[in-house]
Design brief:
alpha/beta, Central glycolytic genes regulator, Arc Repressor Mutant, subunit A, 16 helices, DNA binding, 13 strands, about 350 residues, Rossmann fold, SorC_transcr_regulators, 2 domains, transcription regulation, seven-stranded parallel beta sheet
Length: about 350
């Protein structure tokens, strides 16, 4: 039990107070310019009266600067906020699950956060903090991060912060072109969100995901497209997720013939356009412009972020295709579902 745990047990009201003040610092850290009290209150869902009371304490401690022009976080506020997040992150990790999961999947690294994204969306913020911590520790000063699309990474990306790009030249690049479906989960969009939140560079890849071989050969001659594709293949890190095969086949808007292949092949999961079965064998692969399986396994840092128990089978099978020196960052519900029937965690 750490100090925060002890204080929370002795004075439970401190937990709520700490949450409020930490949320204020987090919200302010996302803004380069001063913002008004009313805007800040709306962003963190507080009454202006409660916000005013807490801002006075933070101002007296020189963690925020308040003037007629608005409110901004100070350098000391950034430092203290980051320190508290690091301390609280330790409370949210589940090391026992991590050990069992790494052994079961035969991989080197796991990070499991408490909770279930299906009934608590704030778990995405904990996943984001975990991913950002790993990136902060592992990325060099000149770093490129390639990003796939999907709802999980879209939700995680909005919680990244500019701390990741401090003392580092950082760029985000999509790992594939655009495809049919929701705009906000496209690879381009997700990479752009992460670049915006971290105040990093962004290299777009504005091409359709599916092209004929002849058109692909022509389009990759364009300097901007070639630059993005080369950067994504040689990036320092790849952020990706996996999905359940049935859900992803509908999202990809496959033809009836393609759907039939997936059903007959008993596919359980999908990642970067590849549908695979429970043994990690490829059932069907969507022709696409961007990263291929042979590219993915070469990345020096590979972070797979997965959340929700419905992705358990897809996750288990995915790691039969992946190198062992990889990371799985997931929520408690996924960890339990993967381990169910294998360990004491049921």
């Amino acid at each position: 039990m750490d100090l925060i745990d002890v204080l929370g047990t002795l004075a439970p009201e401190l937990d709520e107070m700490l949450d409020i003040r930490l949320n204020i610092l987090k919200a302010l850290s996302k803004h380069q310019l001063r913002i008004g009290r009313k805007v800040l209150a709306e962003q963190i869902n507080l009454s202006e009266r409660t916000l005013r009371t807490n801002l006075k304490v933070l101002r007296d401690q020189e963690l925020v600067d308040v003037s007629r022009a608005g409110i901004r976080i100070t350098d000391e506020g950034q430092r203290v906020g980051h320190l508290i997040q690091q301390l609280r992150m330790g409370q949210d990790r589940l090391p026992e699950y991590e050990a069992f999961l790494a052994k079961e999947l035969e991989i080197q690294n796991c990070w499991v956060v408490a909770g279930n994204v299906e009934n608590d969306p704030t778990v995405f913020q904990m996943l984001a903090e975990a991913v950002q911590t790993i990136l902060g520790q592992e990325l060099p000063q000149e770093a490129v991060v390639a990003v796939t699309g999907g709802s999980t990474l879209a939700n995680v990306g909005q919680y990244f912060t500019k701390e990741l790009s401090q003392n580092r030249h950082l760029s985000f690049v999509p790992s594939r072109g655009g495809m049919e479906g929701s705009f906000h989960i496209q690879s381009n969009t997700v990479a752009g969100i992460m670049a915006q939140e971290t105040q990093a560079d962004y290299v777009p890849l504005y091409v359709p995901d599916r092209l004929t071989d002849e058109l692909s050969q022509e389009i990759v001659k364009d300097p901007a497209i070639k630059k993005a594709l080369d950067l994504s293949r040689t990036a320092n890190c790849l952020l990706l997720s996996v999905g359940a095969a049935q859900i992803m086949s509908h999202r990809r808007k496959l033809t009836d013939q393609q759907e039939k292949k997936i059903i007959e092949g008993q596919a359980v999961g999908e990642a970067f356009g590849i549908f695979y079965d429970a043994d990690g064998k490829i059932v069907f692969s969507i022709p696409r412009l961007g990263l291929q399986l042979e590219d993915v396994i070469k990345f020096p840092l590979l972070l797979t972020i997965v959340a929700g128990e419905q992705k358990a089978s897809a996750t288990r099978a995915f790691y039969k295709m992946m190198p062992k020196q990889t990371w799985l960052i997931c929520d408690e519900s996924l960890a339990k579902a993967v381990l169910n029937g294998v360990t004491q965690f049921k």
